[in-house]
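Section 3.1 - Work completed
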Amino acid sequence: MPDHALHGLRVVDASESIAGQYCARLFADFGAEVVLAEPADGSVIRQKPPFSVTGGDSLTFLHLNSGKHSIVLTALPEREREALLAAADVVILPSSRPGSLSGLSPSCVTVDVTPFGREGPRAGWAGPEIVIQALSGMMFNNGEDGREPLYGCGDRSSYAAGLAAYIGALAALQAREERGGGQHVDITAAETAAATCFPHAFQHIYSGTLRTRADRTNPCGQILCRDGWVCIWIYNHRWVRFCETVGLQHLIPDDRFADPVIRRQNWVELFAIIQAHLGGEEAEALVDRLQRADVIAAKSYRLTELPVQKHLAERGYWESLPDGRRILGPTFRLSRTPRRVRGGPPALGQGKVAWDPRPVREGLVQAPRAAAGTGPLSGLRVMELTTAWAGPMAGRVLGFLGAECIHIESPNRVNSWRLNKERPNPDNFPAGEPGERPYDRSFLFNSQNVNKLSCILDLKTQEGRAIAKRLAAACDVVICNFRPGTLAKLGLDYESLRALRPDMIVAELPAFGLSGPLSNHAALGPTMEMAAGMSSLVGYRDGQPETTGPSYLDPIGGFNTAAAILTALRHRQRTGEGQHVEVPQVEAAMHLIGGEILSAAETGQDPVRDGNRLPHAAPHDAFPCAGHESWVAIAVRDDREWRDLCQAMGRDDLSADPRFATHADRKRHEDELTAVIAAWSCDRDAQAIADQLQSAGVPAAAVQKPRDVAQDCQLSHRGFFHRLAHPDAGEHPHPGLPFRLSATPGSQRRAAPAFGQHTDDVLARIAGLSAEEIRLAWATKATATAPLPGG
């Protein structure tokens, strides 16, 4: 299929993990030939719930392995096995015996995805989802103050690690075609989770802030409408607009709510009033009314609602396998080389695969290269028209891997993570001091714009737009996370830029896509969780849907965008063609709970929220420990782990207790089980419990606070933090990214730029402006040295 982006690539997936198999599924989706190499009794993912009520097979396996072939590697004759491995471009290694595969080509890219890596103090730890989320800082942020923190839902850290592995593998292939030779890609779920839940840890590093669970200040709340929950995000500068839109004008001058600080103190009372006033509304109609008034809101969709949602239907999202079974649509859409799933999940050992040993390198087209740098993407040049988190994270990933990233900033609409319209929070700045240039000292902006150049252009002016076009023509990739239609208004849409440079790749990441009834809805990480169905899975028993982390889906959107760009770059490398890339962040996020969505679509039943408890594990929860806001997460997945937990607790009697003898017994008496473990844990140190239980073979982890993440022993051992000096904010350790490539490693080379720090250099060296043209740009105020008042 030569029109596929990854045509000609051969991938052997020997993993038995969600992360490895999701990485390989992405390769299969975009044209690579992927072989799932299974043990004689089949991959363990074949036994992963949920299961189909009709066929009895694993829907998670279906979600991860559609489009692949299956072989039993040990059943192949030795000559066939050697030929298969020698012809592979990418091999995803088995988790348990990564060195068991031999005879790989020197040009092969090997990928190892593990919970913690193969060295360091936690190298031998078990890492199910609740353990990874507890250590990442995500879990501490979730749930109600005073109650057990919530880990989230599904196996999102594994999917995110698989996405990171796909990015790393494609970057290594990019380097191979430029420089020759394969290399090893090392990805851990723990580092991926830490990279997507970093802000509070970096805030602690910057300002010494010690956050508590009561300190969460996101300006959002939820109300129950007549047909579902709605999340409403009320920025301070949208307070009056919100009240006017919903007919609550009398609250505008109310002493309880007029001042933003006092309003936050009375948030519960405010939302009780909003609930009473709007509870009879229809959810989607209310969301639409608020969005038209520029108030961010989203319905919390139940999983059973997604297959019949009008927006997804109009976008043609859902697809069917040859046997009629439904699957989720693409994570991202490529205009020239769209996803095409070749078939359903393979039967064990299905098909015969014979690869000839020819190199898969013919027909490569070398694009013009920028100045040489370091990392697998050195020479690639990226122009960013982005703000906040998701878009900048995409550029940050590419920059970490060696690309030259130019962050275009407006003098009158400043990146909200530099300077937002809210009252400055001292905790955002080093030592709590905003300084004379607070927009250069914000930990938020400085976290996501490492390695980048800052160029100020006023795109509202004719001169600014003309310069932006010249700059874009000198770039390989343009990234935009503005609302749909913005690029066209600026004359910077794909078709316009393609006319300037035919091999251009333009990537847009709208929350809901570029078309459909919701396409113009603004969104943030929490409201995207609502729209993707995730929040319907998270919450306490009989409680409201909950969001997780500090905008969890924003960095995931950045990762998906980087993956999409690298996929398009592979096609360009082979053919010389650019294309338009669309990353609908909500649709991409749905893949992280793909098995659960397929189950709900098949059964017509929604999962019931029940805190941290799972049908297939008991206990599976957070338990109180000694100290303020101290908790330990414990997961028992089988009877062996239960016996080991009892022994570690010094309670062998519990393993013989008929209430807890089997998994079914423990589920029936889960409240009693929780009380027993909480009584044991409550006066013990959380980290000591985790160390003790992991040594006994029981998955456990302290629920880490931001300070703990900043000082995490495993992250520190693996060099996750990098010290970078900022000219105004000072020198601090910066959290890194999870991509480790053996031959062309990524890096954090310099701190985030000051506002407009590189404008003249970018205009001259990259855009090619003469000294007179640069002088004219300043004279016409197409650029600036500081944000304009009100910007």
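Second construct:
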Amino acid sequence: MTVLKTSMRNFLAHKGRMALSAVAVLLSVAFVCGTLVFTDTMNTTFDKLFAATSSDVTVSAKKSSDTGETTSGNGKPPVMPAAVLDEVQGVRGVKSAEGTVFSTSVTVVDADKDSLSPSSGAPTIVGNWNSNDARTMEITSGAAPRNADQIMVDADTADKHGLKLGDELGVITAVGTHRAKISGFADFTVTNPGAAMFYLDTETAQRTLVGETGVYTNVNVTAESGVTDDRLKKDVSAALDGAYKVQTAQEVADANAEEVGDFMGVLKYAMLGFAGIAFLVGIFLIINTFSMLVAQRTREIGLMRAIGSSRKQVNRSVLVEALLLGVVGSVLGVAAGVGLAVGLMKLMGQMGMELSTDDLTIAWTTPVLGLVLGVVVTVLAAYLPARRAGRISPMAALRDAGTPADAKAGVVRAVLGLLLTGAGGYALYLATAADRASDGSLWLGLGVVASLIGFVVVGPVLAAGVVRVLSVVLLRAFGPVGRMAERNALRNPRRTGATGAALMIGLALVACLSVVGSSMVASATDQLDKTVGTDFIIQNDQTQPITEQAVRAVKSVDGLERVTEYKILDADLITPDGERSKNETINAADPSYAEDVRTKTVAGDLADAYRPDSMSVFEGFAEEHGIKIGSPVKVDFKDGTTATLTVRAITSDEVVVDKGAMYASITTVAKYVPAEDMPLDILVFATAKEGQQEAAYQALKTALHDFPQYQVRDQTDYKEALKDQVGQLLNMIYGLLGLAIIVAILGVVNTLALSVVERTREIGLMRAIGLSRRQLRRMIRLESVVIALFGALLGLGLGMVWGATAQQLLALEGLKVLDIPWPTIGGVFVGSAFVGLFAALIPAFRAGRMNVLNAIATD
């Protein structure tokens, strides 16, 4: 009880100093709990959606997916004849059955030819209005479509694009473009999944999406009362003789949930990973806080020991303070995490996915995990300072002497840090020497962990040298004030090292990812310059195929020398060694593709692969199956028959564009795949006649004005798009790493604030002999800047080494250009100086307000 009272008294006495440490715990716990609540809520939302939209039993074509996805390579959904509906309606136990037709391989445009597809990447769905949709949507204005001239739109899409009743829309599909006027709006009665929904009458939907009537993509079946879904599925399957896919509502919901769960799982663990980094950074803050509090209470601890307190009691007193800090920070963090999850839901709403707080899901494990993590991390971080406090002898404490083992501990720390850093460096060297990226990645991971821990451990040793160098460059110009700031930073190297290490971790990751991202863009750009010989690339960024109408529009452009079509087909390959390689991809293109993309070969000429009944394979596949030039390979096309093709070229694995591709000509493939099953192009290449590039570029954009879903890019545009994609990914990662950097900034603030308290008497004496308030504030700011730059220098240096090592592994995959983004590195370094200035504002202000006489009188 005495220990608890003492701990409570100390905790409340230093509540201001504990606040920033509590904020660090709060932020880390909030990120963990917010991630869990957000992902659990998303899963609950989609589970309800899938349960609401699934009929008791669903019948679909064999080629359709388990999730009900209705796209296919030819741009049309897989369908079944309307006669299936009649057969299903006659099955025992069927209360009702309804045929539906839907497709997601569509684009809908307004009167100005602007796409109405969601910017979030959610699908655009066009289908017939049916009773299953009426369960989850309510017509709020106008009426459902009754003829070919009418279309109904979901209310969210209408609001987003300012659509009104009577506005004309165009539905672009593989069949053609259908135009209709808005007849009504339907609002979601469940959570809007973010999709854009458009409804036609049944016959118009069939003609628009499939090109023929009398077919359906699905038959939705409702069971009679007392008939289970499993029983109904069995009876329907028997009646259809297994010719079609039959699923219960639970099976459809599970398939959809699994697909969403894969994405949510990646998002969840990525965000938790960044929360873990923030926890790691927070550990340094807590260690520093308790180390300084213990140091400031050295005489108090000595008195406690002198009147009979044991080492265990002193140790326990500090740990109880940490426990209180962890509990307070964690409880607030759990509450903040729920708020963060709600904020993320609002953000998703801005992106088009309306998530209701009615579905907010807080599993009992979430607050428990947040509390356990916060408390355990805080107590573990405080263990070393607590142990150090317990080891102080009463007499040494009463005369403010340090522990006799400090010097020895410093030597042990230095040796251990150097050994870990050396081990990490050697692991990174082994990563660069690996022959395969998969082997090198293991060494890279070990090297990153070992070198990071090594730098953290050896930080106090490095602080003495690095701070002196930085001081010569930056602080000496400020005269005596700069020298005092230098001495303050060097006074306690362990403290400076720990404070700098917190910032080092976040900046090391920033530097590493910057180098990797910049090198990827530079390597891809270099490969494009070397391999792409065409002027223009036409594609859809959402990977939708390019319709035949759009291809014809491209070919009609004057000023083009050639147009190359490019398709992808799935096939099983039976190699000369007798093995069957399943689910391989055949890249079918016009023979001019060999000119458009100059792919390196290790045997044969790629142009020969486009001869009749010929193909190419890539180097690794050829080595694995003993394939040589002239070897026959049986190609069993999924949507066609089996062909025997002769290998005419073997492409190198040291490429980036189409790495691992196997080529054949469209003419060859067309012999074995029926025209109705031939996939649409996923890319179209166009090359202008000499000197007509600019005119052809503008003409292509004009020709595709009616097809806004496709982008026309020249090589400059393509490089910029690639750079933007990598940049967007890096910016998202930087944003998540920002949490760790915020915690690191709190660490700098806390260290300086406690340092000011620790030096109260010294500050009073300096003020008494003539140091002005402005000089005092400047001294503290300069100390903060040099500590921040120390951490930045270590972090950026370490991160660039990690990034360069990772690039060497990427070089094994063809990305051979190492590019150091010096503007980014320099900007981060300069930004770290401003971080130091910002972190010192409050401590410097408080120091400047000290009363000189009271400060001198402080004991």
